[in-house]
């Protein structure tokens, strides 16, 4: 039987039938106590009806055999790393990571006796040079947060397979709409479902997708750490996924147009977006992604007040999270990457004038007008 298109899978896959009233949406099962005579159904075991239905939907979108949903993106990340790393093992991370992931590595992995290192760059040779006899995992994210760097996923996959290493990717910035890493050879895909999968800035969640064998390892650790997602939030996330393609395609389109607009603005020093044809990542992104995502970053000229710019925006809101239907901005130096040492921020190119822009689904001309008036005010008063 031919598999349905992703747009259809978003709406229908994993939906629970309502045998009592034949409702059009999945019923919500809030129980934490189920009859043991019908199996070990329990929320912490990731196997309640809504959890199973949602996991099936996410698996279908990521071309995975199985998935599990967690209480946050960091719950998904930490559980997955601890599922494949033990005392004496070694993991390689790309140099520029989401701040929470980097903090987990630098503050907690040594506690478990796990070695870690960061590649000097995202070039394959720099990952290869870090491989040791005890290397078990290579962990990447692409596009990266916040500088939108693109890693060669097929290259990483081939390098890892040649050395019997498991590959893990944080696919949050791309979403399944724009990128399917398993199809490119990556073993395990993680999402902060708080972002594009949830899409409405009202859900905290995470997901892990992989082969049945790999997910058995994740389940084994996950059921003990207790990072499962509440069934009510599971139900909300399943609802949100029904509009994933509609939302993300609009965000992609808006971001592409706004990146070009900002690139030509006199107040902007640089725009970081792989969809720009002058980006060094354009060809690679075009080859391994279906579209270029709704995220971008830009650096405001040093002689212009970033704070006045932020405070002058009307539609675009300052916010810690991202990928909701509303447009938001964020200063990684002060938020997602604030725990990085100053020297590391400088090395990565994360300055106080760098703004991460999560583009929403509003009319793009309204967003341009909001950016223009805020930049003009910041230029005049800065």
Number of helices: 14
One letter per element, helices H and strands E, the order comes to HHEHEHEHEHEHEEHHHEHEHEEHEH
Poorly predicted tracts of residues:
none
Helix content: 25-40%
Query: In the CATH hierarchy, what is the class of the largest domain?
Result: Alpha Beta
Mean pLDDT, to the nearest integer, reads 96
Supply the CATH superfamily name of the largest domain.
Answer: Type I PLP-dependent aspartate aminotransferase-like (Major domain)
Assembly state (oligomeric)? single chain
Sequence of strands across the biggest β-sheet: 1-7-6-5-4-2-3
Shape field: globular
Residues in β-strands, percent = 5-15%
CATH-defined fold name of the largest domain: Aspartate Aminotransferase, domain 2
Q: How many separate domains?
A: 2
CA-CA gap between termini: 62 Å
Main structural class: alpha/beta
CATH architecture of the largest domain: 3-Layer(aba) Sandwich
Care to count the β-strands?
A: 12
């Amino acid at each position: 039987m031919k598999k349905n298109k992703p747009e259809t899978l978003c709406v229908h896959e994993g939906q629970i039938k309502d045998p009592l009233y034949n409702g059009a949406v999945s019923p919500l099962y809030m129980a934490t106590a189920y009859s043991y005579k019908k199996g070990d159904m329990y929320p912490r075991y990731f196997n309640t009806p809504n959890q199973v239905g949602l996991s099936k939907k996410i698996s279908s979108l990521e071309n995975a055999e199985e998935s599990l949903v967690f209480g946050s993106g960091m719950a998904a990340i930490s559980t997955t790393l601890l599922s494949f790393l033990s005392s004496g093992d070694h993991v390689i991370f790309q140099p520029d990571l989401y701040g929470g992931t980097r903090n987990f590595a630098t503050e907690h992995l040594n506690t478990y006796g796990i070695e870690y290192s960061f590649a000097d760059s995202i070039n394959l040779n720099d990952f290869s040079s870090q491989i040791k006899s005890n290397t078990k995992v290579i962990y990447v994210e692409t596009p990266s947060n916040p500088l939108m760097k693109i890693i060669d996923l097929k290259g990483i996959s081939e390098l890892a397979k040649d050395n019997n290493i498991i590959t893990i990717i944080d696919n949050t910035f791309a979403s399944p709409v724009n990128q399917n890493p398993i199809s490119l050879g990556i073993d395990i895909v993680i999402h902060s479902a708080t972002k594009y999968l949830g899409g409405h800035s009202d859900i905290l969640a995470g997901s892990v997708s992989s082969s049945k064998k790999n997910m058995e390892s994740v389940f084994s650790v996950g059921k003990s750490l207790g990072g499962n997602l509440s069934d009510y939030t599971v139900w909300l996330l399943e609802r949100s996924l029904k509009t994933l393609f509609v939302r993300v395609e609009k965000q992609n389109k808006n971001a592409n147009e706004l990146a070009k607009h900002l690139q030509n603005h006199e107040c902007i020093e640089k725009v970081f977006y792989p969809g720009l044809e002058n980006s060094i990542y354009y060809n690679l992104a075009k080859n391994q992604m279906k579209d270029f995502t709704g995220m971008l970053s830009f650096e405001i000229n040093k002689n212009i007040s970033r704070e006045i710019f932020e405070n002058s925006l009307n539609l675009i809101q300052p916010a810690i999270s991202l990928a909701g239907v509303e447009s938001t901005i964020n200063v990684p130096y002060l938020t997602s990457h604030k725990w990085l040492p100053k020297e590391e921020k400088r090395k990565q190119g994360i300055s106080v004038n760098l703004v991460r822009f999560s583009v929403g689904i509003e009319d793009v001309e309204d967003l341009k007008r909001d950016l223009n008036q805020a930049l003009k005010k910041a230029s005049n008063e800065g």
